Amino acid sequence: MRADAARNREKLVAAAAQVFGDRGLDAPLEEVARRAGVSIGTLYNHFHERQDLFDAIFPARLAELDRLAAAALEDPDPWAGFAAFVEGIVALQAQDRGLNDVLARRFPLASELAEACDRGFAHLARIVERAKESGQLRSDFEVTDFVPLMWAMSQIIRESGGAEPAVWRRFLGLFLDGLRADAARPLPVPALSGDQMAELMRGR
């Protein structure tokens, strides 16, 4: 790649990270090109699909999930590890609207991003199982229940950010208290299957 082409690519990635962070993943690509100081044609020369940009930006950011998961699994208190992992993910959502969208949706054409998300769900499954085995997390909580929780927190972050950016912590505390085993009551319907959840995430 020529030096000028490499510079343009770097500018596009930096601009896309800013635009998606401010406006979410559906932000106009024309705005990305404008902030990068290049034409929309140059953008498409480097990134043929919108999801190619996602692959260039978000896998590195999602690597933070590996650190959060390692800390959760090392915590001697499985509930504390679970709660800290969930809080860490929601904190990432609150910091970056683009990442907020990434955690709530599926992007099959962005292979590196999909791999990073799959790795995050594998971490979550281990953390959930550990907390359930300790008797602290309600036994009927499933990994697929986590995604609607992220959807709810995503909406809270969007709606409350202008008034009180940290209010999501209050609602997360309410959610987490409802997941404690000693507060559990029978649920009226079962959790969604993995296939059902994947279909819902693709449709968002």
UniProtKB/TrEMBL annotation:
<dbReference type="GO" id="GO:0003700">
    <property type="term" value="F:DNA-binding transcription factor activity"/>
</dbReference>
<dbReference type="InterPro" id="IPR050109">
    <property type="entry name" value="HTH-type_TetR-like_transc_reg"/>
</dbReference>
<dbReference type="InterPro" id="IPR001647">
    <property type="entry name" value="HTH_TetR"/>
</dbReference>
<keyword id="KW-0805">Transcription regulation</keyword>
<protein>
    <submittedName>
        <fullName>TetR family transcriptional regulator</fullName>
    </submittedName>
</protein>
<dbReference type="InterPro" id="IPR009057">
    <property type="entry name" value="Homeodomain-like_sf"/>
</dbReference>
<dbReference type="InterPro" id="IPR049445">
    <property type="entry name" value="TetR_SbtR-like_C"/>
</dbReference>
<keyword id="KW-0804">Transcription</keyword>
<dbReference type="Pfam" id="PF00440">
    <property type="entry name" value="TetR_N"/>
</dbReference>
<dbReference type="GO" id="GO:0000976">
    <property type="term" value="F:transcription cis-regulatory region binding"/>
</dbReference>
<dbReference type="Pfam" id="PF21597">
    <property type="entry name" value="TetR_C_43"/>
</dbReference>
<feature type="domain" description="HTH tetR-type">
    <location>
        <begin position="6"/>
        <end position="65"/>
    </location>
</feature>
<dbReference type="InterPro" id="IPR036271">
    <property type="entry name" value="Tet_transcr_reg_TetR-rel_C_sf"/>
</dbReference>
<feature type="DNA-binding region" description="H-T-H motif">
    <location>
        <begin position="28"/>
        <end position="47"/>
    </location>
</feature>
<keyword id="KW-0238">DNA-binding</keyword>
